Amino acid sequence: MSKRMMVLLLVTVVAFGGLFGVKWFSGIKMAEYFDNMPVPPTVVSATAAKADAWITEVTAVGSVAAVQGAQLTTAVPGIVDHIYFKNGSAVETGDVILTLDSATDLAQLKSLQAAERLAELERDRLKALWQSKSISKSELDQRQTQLEQAQANAAAQQARIDQKILRAPFAGRLGIRSVNIGQYVEAGDPLINLQSLDKVFIDFMLPEQRFSNVQAGMPVRAQMDALGDKVFEGEITAIEPMIDPDTRNFRVQATFTNQEKQLRPGMSARVSLNVGKQQDVVVVPRTAISYRPYGNSVYVLTPIDGKDAEGKQQMLSKQRFVRTGETRGDLIAIDEGLSVDEQVVTSGLLKLRSGANVSINNAVQPDANIAPTPDNG
With contact defined as beta carbons under 8 Å apart, do 304 and 348 qualify? Predict the structure, then answer.
């Protein structure tokens, strides 16, 4: 190899070596820069844990039922003759709702009543003869028996006619009839629904663990999805003495006044009642809880030296495991792991890590109401 080639080769090695050396050195410096580059604080919202007093609350889903309700029917078959009500109208006890055709029965009743009058006349004639000692007492007794038999036959026929008159057994509101004039109905066919709405029951189920906590007379609150946020108040009036062996639940019945007739049988109800004694609890918004399979936690904030670009105090976040308790509305009770007035992060948890610097911005705060009323419109 000539001297010239050696020089060119040496120059090439030096040039490429220098290029790679510069690139390696710049990579090291860039890594050092990023490692030491200041990380801007994470912006979160925060609030202080608060003390509150809660009474253990039990909730359940139930159904509204009428205190008195019936699907009205007739005891005998026949053809509908007259209908005396309008669909959805209110009736009082004893009001006639409809009648079945009873023309043949009335004719038979007149015949039986005539036989009754004849038997009565015969009895009176023989009674006069017996008083004059013209007949024996047995003959008079026989006529008396015939009269009573005629009276019984007439009364039985009158009862059959009365069975063709459907009356309201109690005061309430009628539904929509399922028969028309001229229609033949069998005994027991449903004709019209009648419900008493002055008071209603709400039936619901509770787990067997609550059996000793519930007793008659306890106040109950109920809300209906169909009636918005309105709360109805009643009281427990009956408790099923037996626990269902299949579900391990027992049935409870509460009675509610219904003066405005808003509660209707069949409605779904969300029921709540307080059991136990009042207890002091530490509460935070539910959004402050980080739920994980290995345990729930919160991010607790402590002040550190330094301020952000806006001059706000910077805070250090530290993840802390807690034991959560009952939830009410937007709030959750912390049974263990947090003290009153400790500040916790309420939003921005997904971008946090333990030990990160944060800056608080509470311009927008998550809801934290014990009884939220969301806008359903």
Answer: no
CATH of domain 58-66+197-276: 2.40.30.170
**Class of CATH domain 102-163:** mainly alpha
Return the CATH fold of 42-55+279-360.
2.40.420
How is residue 290 annotated by DSSP?
B
105-138 pLDDT, tens digit each: 899 989 998 988 988 898 888 888 888 877 788 8
**CATH 2.40.420.20 residue ranges in the chain?**
42-55+279-360
Q: Summarize the confidence of residues 220-236 as an average pLDDT.
A: 91
Instruction: Pinpoint the residues of the chain covered by CATH 1.10.287.
Output: 102-163
Q: Identify the H or E element spanning 104.
A: helix 103-131
Q: What's at 339, amino acid-wise?
A: S
pLDDT tier for residue 377 given thresholds of 50, 70 and 90:
very low
Least confident of 4-8, 120-124, 325-329: 4-8
CATH of domain 74-101+164-190: 2.40.50.100
Distance CA(32)–CA(186), nearest Å, equals 95
Region label for 295, one of left (φ > 0), alpha (ψ between -120 and 50) or beta (otherwise) = left
Opening angle at CA 328, ends 330 and 359, nearest 5: 30
Residues ≥6 apart with Cβ < 8 Å to 63: 202, 203, 204, 266, 267, 268, 269
Q: Where are the beta strands (DSSP E) in the chain?
A: 42-48, 50-72, 78-83, 90-91, 96-100, 165-167, 172-174, 184-185, 192-207, 219-224, 231-239, 249-257, 268-285, 297-307, 313-321, 323-328, 331-336, 343-347, 357-360
- The C-alpha atoms of residue 318 and residue 42 are separated, in whole angstroms, by 13
